[in-house]
Every structure is written in C-alpha cells, then in structure tokens.
Amino acid sequence: MRLIDISLPITSRLPRWPGDPPVQMETFLDFPDDGVRASSLSFSLHTGTHVDAPLHHLPGGGDVESLDLASLIGPATVIDVGEVKCVTPEVLESHLGGANPSRLLVKTLNSPGWSSATEFNPDFVALTRDAAKWAVERGIRLVGIDYLSVQSYHDGDPDVHVILLEAGVVILEGLDLSGVVAARPYELLCLPLRIRGAEGGPCRAVLREIP
Which parts of the chain sit beneath pLDDT 70? Predict the structure, then answer.
C-alpha cells in the first residue's frame, strides 16, 4: 500500500492569499531551561492545504465541524488537465467522459510550482463558473485543486465557491499533486482540524493507491 502525501508543508515561506496573515510559529518553552519544548502557531485557516466550509461564503452556512466526513474519505479520481489556463466543463468532460466520481482532484500547471514557490501567483489555473455547475450536476461530493483557491483570483465575484458550497460540495484547496499520476485508482484520506465555528480548516490530505 503506497501513500502519497498531497498536502503542503506549512512554513513561513509558503505562498499565501493576498491579505492573509503570515505563518508565525513561536516557541515559548524550550530546552535546556524549561526541560520541554512548546510552541504556538498562528496563520489563516486558508493557509496551504485546507477545506472550505459553507460558512466561508454563505452567511449562516455550516462550519468546518459540520462537514460530512464521508465526503472527505473514499475513492477519488485524479485528472491531469495539462496546460489549460482554466478548467471548463469541456476540459472536465474530455477527461472524465461519462464517469461520475464522488471525489474529483484536478491536477493543473499549478502543481509543479510548489517545489520552489515563495510568492503568490495571481494567474493560477482554476475552475470556471460553468465547470462548478457541471460538477454539481454530476453529483460530485468533493472538488480539489492544486492551488489556494478553486476560483480564479481575477474573478469579480465568488460564484464558483457559492455554486459548489450551496450544493454541499466540499472544496479542497492547496493540494500538491506533482507526485500523483492521474487515471489510477486512489482513495482520498483528508481530515480537517475540528475547529468549531470555523469557515475552513487546514488538513492533511493523503492518497492511497488502490491495487
């Protein structure tokens, strides 16, 4: 059984969404004086690999604690969309055909950049509004992508998020799919921190190769 870690390490050099606070880890107890090491950690809930809960864009929506864990664990389909600049319904259709995966992870031009990136890239590849509608119509329960948002930085509204979240689709962002071969059978294991009242949460996301 091979496990592939598709989550990003949280460091102070990790690119972050413009306006988000930086990652700050502070050691407040340490060797040798205290006989133990203990640290505090501060960062946006949308840092690195994370999920978006409905509350992120829907007033009164459910928080991260309310997410259905069954959507976060189970068979997943990874598609590699190559060098496209945006993910449209036509792109999804061409890679999935008549398949209706419960969990869809989209590998794009974003993934190779994680190995050296320290600055935010505003031109990352993301889903279009119509692609979000397509995913909802197909009954997809989770959509993951390999940058900090499933939606383009240049969009003037949050429609992509709203379309997915209103339909109960879990959004998984900030994946590193550079080491993942598409079109193989995988099981996704992804559990966000249980933070009551939070609109999102960091998570460790892993793919298990299914023989």
Answer: none
